[in-house]
Design goal:
Porin, two-stranded antiparallel sheet, disordered N terminus, 23 strands, 4 helices, 2 domains
Length: 463
């Protein structure tokens, strides 16, 4: 009996332990399968999340494109060409352009706000007057310019400063003309004087120098501008009528002419070092509405100040004007100067009226920039800071110091319009390529009268 019991126990043990081992292996296998399924589910979840993000991103882009297309529907439908749709982008101003660049439009403007204070001798105050206003909008302009069918060009600029509306460059023309390059008809600055032809956005001081009173400024006419020898030589010429500043309507039917030639005797490293030389000539008829008289006057290089020299009206048949100009850029340092003389053929006198002026100035960028030069026009263009002003990046922008001496003589024979000399110190802070703050101190000396000291600040935005 004992033997039978022993055999039964052994038999049951042998049967139980193999089954238990098999069961344990089965559980282990199921666990492994479960873990694999969990990993697969995690991968699928991650894939689903990624797909969801892509769907949301595509829907967002679709919405933005739809909004842009809806906002610009009229523009794009009007601007359809064989080359594609109109491209809208920002490059120092809002621009619209077809891929083939046959049609383009740039919308821009400028705001210049001036503040000034003047201290003068009692003699100056008594004879020449005092500062009438402490502030003004010196310029407040909007414009549109561009190309049509590749070769056509146009510009329309209007100024609202002082509460009056006036034209400030309104013309159309053709470019890429053999030998002439650019031909224009309308109102624009006649080709005479480096400083006169340089935009007010890019001049070094608040106002152009004293000889600017002898220059031509904007008039209505026709002319061309061409460049040669890899744009090392420019030639500009125009026929024009003396015109009203605001309406651009000619003041008389007498025709005038002007020609300017400039050359780059030295040009290196895309204008970082250059030597500019130029000369200009103008034949001009009387400049006032009476068609017989000339008149020259000037304030001491601050627009808010009164005129310190003035010839009054005097009779003259015509005037010959001659201008000489030069400029040197050597990295952050630059020099510039001009001389202008007007020879007026008198009507009531055998004497010739001689009126002349000159200036010279130096500037230096403490932050390492240099003045930029436009080779096609032979003038200076916008300064671009190496680093734009930014609190976040701790960048200052560009800082320029400048000093100028200028002189103007309006005395000739029986005409005693006075003589004026100015010493100007300036500091310019370029926050970026479109914003600038200018500070000028002017010491003015009208000969035989006394002295005046003027401090002025300009805040400027242009694009």
């Amino acid at each position: 009996m004992r033997k039978i019991t022993f055999y039964l126990a052994v038999t049951l043990s042998l049967n139980f332990f193999p089954n238990h081992a098999l069961f344990a292996d089965e559980i282990s296998g199921l666990k492994e399968q479960l873990n694999e399924m969990r990993e697969q589910m995690k991968e699928q979840a991650r894939a689903m999340e990624e797909m969801q993000r892509k769907i949301e991103m595509l829907e967002s882009e679709k919405g933005e494109r739809f909004s842009k297309a809806r906002a610009g529907k009229k523009l794009e439908s009007a601007g359809k060409t064989d080359g594609g749709d109109v491209r809208v982008f920002w490059k120092n101003g809002l621009r619209f352009e077809t891929p083939d660049k046959d049609f383009s439009l740039k919308a821009g403007g400028r705001i210049q706000v001036d503040f000034a204070g003047m201290g003068e001798d009692s003699e100056v105050k008594g004879k020449l007057g005092k500062l009438e206003h402490p502030a003004e909008f010196r310029r407040l302009r909007v414009y549109g310019s561009g190309t049509l069918f590749g070769n056509g060009v146009y510009k329309a600029q209007v100024d609202f400063a002082g509460g009056e509306v006036g034209f400030r460059d309104v013309y159309l023309g053709l470019k890429n003309i053999p030998f002439l390059d650019l031909f224009r008809v309308g109102q624009y600055t006649a080709p005479f004087s480096l400083e006169d032809m340089t935009s007010s956005n890019h001049i070094t001081f608040l106002e152009r120098s004293l000889p600017y009173a002898l220059s031509l400024h904007r008039n209505t006419g026709i002319g061309f501008n061409s460049s040669h020898l890899d744009e090392r030589l420019t030639l500009s010429s125009a026929l024009f009528f003396n015109s009203d500043d605001n309406s651009a309507i000619p003041l008389s039917n007498a025709l005038n002419s002007a020609t300017r030639v400039t050359g780059l005797a030295w040009y290196e490293n895309q204008g970082e070092r250059l030597l500019h030389l130029g000369a200009a000539y103008c034949y001009r008829n009387p400049t006032n509405e009476n068609k017989t008289d000339f008149r020259y006057s000037s304030s001491p290089e601050i627009h808010l100040a009164p005129d310190f020299v003035d010839t009054g009206e005097f009779s003259g048949r015509y005037a010959n004007l001659v201008g000489l100009e030069s400029a040197l850029v050597y990295g952050p340092f630059s020099l510039q100067g001009e001389f202008i003389q007007s020879f007026v053929n008198r009507k009531d006198s055998s004497a010739v009226g001689y009126f002349d002026g000159f200036y010279v100035y130096a500037s230096y960028f403490l932050t390492g920039e240099h003045r930029n030069y436009d080779k096609f026009w032979g003038v200076f263009s916008a300064v671009k800071p190496l680093k734009n002003f930014s609190f976040k990046e701790r960048a200052f922008g560009a800082l320029e110091l400048a000093a100028r001496y200028s002189y103007l003589d309006f005395c000739s024979d029986d005409i005693n319009g006075g003589a004026l000399s100015d010493i100007t110190a300036g500091c310019n802070w370029y926050l970026n390529a479109n914003m600038k703050v200018m500070l000028n101190y002017v010491h003015a000396h009208p000969n035989g009268v006394g002295n005046a000291d003027i401090v002025a600040v300009r805040c400027q935005v242009y694009y």
